[in-house]
Amino acid sequence: MPLLALSLAGCNSWLGVSRRPAPPSGFGMEGREDPALSGDGRLLASLVERNGRSSVLLQERLSGKVLPLRTLNGQQPHSSPSLSWNGRYLALIVQRGERRLAMIEDRATGRPHPLLLPGGQEPQRLSLAPDGRRLAVQLTRDGVRRVELFDLGGQLEADLAPGLPIQPR
Amino acid sequence: MKPGPFLIAVLLPLSLLGCSPVSLRPLEPINRALEQAGVGREPSLSGEWLAMISGRQGREQVVLVDLRQNRPVPLPGLNRPDAKPISVSVDRSGERLALVRQRDGRTELALYRRSIQGLQSLPLEPAGVPNQVSLSGDGRLLAVQVSRGGLWQVDLLDLP
User: Fold this and answer.
1) Among B102, B96, B91, residue whose Cα is nearest residue B131
2) A114 to B14: CB separation less than 8 angstroms, yes or no
3) Euclidean distance between the first and the last CA atom of chain B, given in angstroms as a whole number
4) In sequence order, which residues have a C-beta less than 8 Å from that of residue A143 and are 6 or more positions away?
5) Where are the domains of chain A?
């Protein structure tokens, strides 16, 4: 793994940053967008093009192993993936008919959880708190882009660090 | 919340698929504070921290909100009036922020550390144009979307 000597800004000298490409997706030379790491850094979600539509791909970061997602097919294009600490929860935006909908797949149970925004608003970007208890949503209200926070506590089991990696059943 | 036609159209088929809808409860007063801050986009949640890009009248900057206090914390040396932030991500402790910004016609990737109030440029090798960033919880691993030769790629950077 090559080490890159960084050019320095100011007097803050950092050496030893190492770079590598994301593991191959196994789907050819398509582009890869919108990366999201799990809190523990073990998993990487990103978007790839499949059949002309943006689809989320979940992989183990080190091995490149593609992990199954059970509930998201047929709801492309996907956008804005976000993972909890151990990767139990994957939040993202899916397409349902003419509308975009925020969704969480619980990889421990294989169940999807559609997230209902007040007033039927459409999400533009998401960020799931690593413990799965809060969600930040970018949306447009009165023609202005806003970020709003929502509570998921009590509705989803927490995905706390440190914890055991969740294996799909 | 009374379901409208859209929610009925969405929820009925979802319920048949064994979905468990979750009603999102807005968190106040943080949402009121965020609304007063003007435009908001590109949220990043980690630990007790929310990083985002916020601003008014076209002047945007990176903001870090301490969710225990529901107030932003100072980020000296991070924002510049001649820089336009593109994407931001925060680690669990609120110590490190990765960001992509445009300045002087260039798009650059950088890492900010609050404890030393220092912004470190992170050159891309091979060269490319960064876009979206995602930090791991400990701030030691950075995933970044990079355009090279018209193709979007994802780089992973181990940070000391």
Assistant:
1) B102
2) yes
3) 47
4) none
5) 30-151
First to last CA, chain A: 35
pLDDT in tens, chain A (169 residues): 333 333 333 333 455 678 888 887 665 557 899 999 999 999 999 999 988 899 999 999 999 999 999 988 889 999 999 999 999 999 999 998 889 999 999 999 999 999 989 888 899 999 999 999 999 999 998 889 999 999 998 788 999 887 545 545 4
A117 interaction partners in chain B (CB closer than 8 Å): 24
Tens-digit pLDDT profile for residues B38-50:
899 999 999 999 9
Copy the structure tokens of residue A72: 């998201």
- Nearest by CB to residue B6, choosing from A12, A20, A99, is A99
A-chain residues within 8 Å CB-CB of B45? Answer: 127-130, 134-136, 149
Q: How far apart are CA A125 and CA B41, in angstroms?
A: 8
Rounded to whole angstroms, how far apart are CA atoms A136 and A150? 6
Could you tell me the CATH superfamily of domain A30-151? TolB, C-terminal domain (2.120.10.30)
Domains, chain B, ranges and CATH?
A: 23-126 (2.120.10.30)
- Residue of chain B with shortest Cα separation from A86: B137
